[in-house]
User: Which sequence fits this backbone?
């Protein structure tokens, strides 16, 4: 199975940027479709972005479209989430996840493997 470790979270002012990384070990990342999800305090986990195995196809939630970009480097076994123009409502724990399905998915229940999460806090 694959192990996932997120990094890159932190405290940033509104309008700022962060890049999250998700490093995979144990299995080759190219075997998996990948996604980013987030969970704010008291809220359900929500979809942020997902990418196909090659990275040629992506999906992004409407709430972050135009601000967040998912990408992957299979040679480095790493998936990224570039977050620009951050807003206080983006504050959450961000998780990367992997699954072996056929098509990219926004449904968290389809994902088999999860990282431990990284905290992103956006101050106003």
Assistant:
């Amino acid at each position: 199975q694959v192990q996932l470790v997120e990094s890159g979270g932190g405290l940033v002012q509104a309008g700022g940027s962060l890049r999250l990384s998700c490093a995979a070990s144990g299995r080759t990342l190219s075997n998996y479709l990948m996604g980013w999800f987030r969970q704010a305090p008291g809220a359900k986990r929500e979809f942020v972005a997902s990418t196909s195995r090659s990275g040629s196809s992506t999906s992004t939630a409407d709430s972050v479209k135009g601000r967040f970009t998912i990408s992957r480097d299979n040679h480095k076994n790493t998936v990224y989430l570039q977050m620009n123009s951050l807003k206080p409502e983006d504050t959450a724990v961000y998780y990367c996840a992997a699954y072996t399905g056929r098509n990219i998915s926004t449904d968290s229940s389809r994902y088999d493997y999860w990282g431990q999460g990284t905290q992103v806090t956006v101050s106003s």
Q: What stands out?
A: The chain has a mean pLDDT of 96. Residues 93 and 119 are 4 Å apart (CA to CA). The chain has no helices and eleven strands.
